[in-house]
Amino acid sequence: LTPLLPHLDHRSRGMRTRLGCLSHKSDSYNDFTAILPDKPNRALKRLSTEEATRWADSFDVLLSHKYGLAAFRAFLKTEFSEENLEFWLACEDFKKTRSAAKLASKAQRIFEEFIDVQAPREVNIDFQTRELTRRNVQEPSLSCFDQAQGKVHSLMEKDSYPRFLRSKIYTDLLSQTQRRLS
């Protein structure tokens, strides 16, 4: 019994740490500016109200804009679902792989990180898609993640994206760009 106690104590400390992290999550504009690709003030001076407003035109417009992607990532972190975007981005990067030697190792790494059951950043896909992707990765091609990536894209577009457009991060960002104009 005694050897189990340190393990239990260690687990409870880990739980306290995770709970502490939960209390620090917020859906705020400042969280977004903290992860901008370059200096926040300089970046926001370059972002026009028109650009930020265009993010509401379509999900793909948002994903194609450097600051839109950063804002959406910050929002997903507040919802504890950034693995969806990270998987989508990993797939986009994977499709640019030109070396056949790197293709297999990259495919395996993406599968183990995002697709496999109990993966550290497992994305929410159905069993059939998971199994198809498992088979595809055994003989990897640039399209081996297409179905899984499409499902995750669709999930983000239908679920997370509308909430992002109503979020404090996005509305505050629009306000900041409009205030600069006045």
Shape: elongated
Kindly state the percentage of residues in helix. over 70%
pLDDT < 50 runs, ≥5 residues: 1-26
Kindly provide the radius of gyration, computed on alpha-carbon positions and rounded to a whole number of angstroms: 20 Å
Count of DSSP helices? Answer: 11
Order of helices and strands: HHHHHHHHHHH
CATH superfamily: Regulator of G-protein Signalling 4, domain 2
Instruction: Please identify the top-level CATH class.
Output: Mainly Alpha
Q: What is the name of the CATH topology?
A: Regulator of G-protein Signalling 4, domain 2
- Based on the coordinates given, report the CATH architecture: Orthogonal Bundle
Largest sheet: none
Number of domains: 1
Please state the structural category.
mainly alpha
Q: Percent of residues in beta strands? A: under 5%
Task: State the total count of DSSP E strands.
Answer: 0
Mean pLDDT: 82
